[in-house]
Amino acid sequence: MSANARGDLKYSGIVTIPGGSYDHVSLDGVVTIDGDMDSTDIKMNGVFKGIGKLKSNTVSLNGTATFEGIVEAVDMSLNGDFNIRDSLKVDDIYAEGRLSVKGNIVSKKLNMHGIMKVSGSCEADNFDLRGTFTVGEMLNAEDINVDIYGPCGAKEIGCGKIIVRKGERNLIGILADLFSPLIYGKTHLTAETIEGDDINVEHTTAKVIRGNTVAIGNGCVVDLVEYRADFKKSAGARVMKHVKI
Amino acid sequence: MDENLISKKELLEITGISYGALYRWKRKNLIPEEWFIRKSTFTGQETFFPRDKILERVKKIQDMKEDLSLDDLAGVFSPNLAAKSLSKEDMVGRNIVNRSTLDFLTRLYGNIDVFPFEKIVYARILDKALQSGDISLDEGKLMLETLEEHYKKFEGKSCQLVFLRKMGISTCFLVSSPCEFYFEPGARIVSSISVGECIEDLKIKLG
């Protein structure tokens, strides 16, 4: 990305700006970006609406943003609610709050605290999440490490290594559970198939789990486990059938 | 159709690769998304692959991953043009095209000293078609013109060059692959060349 000869952009207030190509962009307030935006870095504080694409080396957001087009970045840090009606391509993303993507996520390092929703598939080298996630198609990652705090789901999961744990709750969390019966007891991951080299899951329902070493922990319901090297099942898990292949 | 497919389980058994490796290669686009064919079976959803293509691809990856990183490998398998060029003499010397094809190219384009990668690809495809004896020199010219004009429009998608003949009249066209096409009975497919495979071969050859 060539940054020379590009100007900076700084706005506060309630404005509509056209897109364009910039070096440093800093926006505060309620901003509509009425076109494609291309920048070296962009800082957004407030409420944002993007009609086009967003492309920037670094993106930081505090607040709420909705983008209609593809969002591409090297580094992203989000705090709040980020909504993308297309796909997200990012090397390194750290997000707190809510991230929802209509298309696919292609990333290297994804670190999320909160709620993640992807309608397509999600790719990452490292997938770290505390909270809940739903992936419409496939979650494909080298390393998956999730602490689940509510209902989660993916159609398929393919990985090198996966660890799924039920998140630790503090007192407030437990009380909140008691008073919200919809979520209570639904801290659970549902997938059709999970395949990987090293699988270690808790509170998971799956039709098939295939792997090299498979450990099925408490609260799991699995129809079929196929393993090559090692299979462990804790007392609190239900596995209909397991075969060594 | 069915006997040309291989299930994921069988693939892992034959090749000895792990689930992790398969998914890693998919993420790096070493194995194209189109090759993952999902089908319902009595055990639920299963994934199948086109047998010959996937076995060949896995073998290539296994052979080359000692020397190249996965990202470099992804470059080899992508249908994007590489940034390489060859001198006129190397084109023949390294067996990309034979002498008579080169002469034909020289007559067409005038003297070219350095071939950029796209020209190498077009020359290679022309050479393949001419050597097989399926097409004549005039038809070769047609083929080159088609490639020159339209190949770039595929922008990194893999495509196929199809050469058709009916009652002595020939025509050729580019289609994105995989793609099915059917013709009236009088027409005959004379030659069908996968441009993606050509590029892949060349990238490996030119290292």
What are the defining features of this structure?
heterodimer, A: 245 residues, mainly beta, eleven-stranded parallel β-sheet, B: 207 residues, alpha+beta, Multidrug-efflux Transporter Regulator, Chain: A, Domain 2, 2 domains, three-stranded antiparallel β-sheet, globular
Provide structural commentary:
The complex is a heterodimer of chains A (245) and B (207). Chain A is mainly beta and 245 residues long. Chain A has one domain. Helices cover 4% and strands 77% of the residues of chain A. Chain A is built from 1 helix and 11 strands; from the N terminus they run E-E-E-E-E-E-E-H-E-E-E-E. In chain A, strand 7, helix 1 and strand 8 form a beta-alpha-beta unit. The longest helix of chain A is centred in the last third of the chain and has 9 residues. The mean pLDDT of chain A is 91. Chain B is built from 9 helices and 8 strands. In chain B, 47% of the residues lie in helices and 21% in strands. Chain B has a 3-stranded antiparallel β-sheet with strand order 1-3-2. In chain B, strands 7-6-8 form a 3-stranded antiparallel β-sheet. Chain B has a two-stranded antiparallel ribbon with strand order 4-5. In chain B, a hairpin with a 2-residue loop joins strand 6 and strand 7. The model of chain B has no long low-confidence stretch (mean pLDDT 82). The relative contact order of chain B is 0.11.
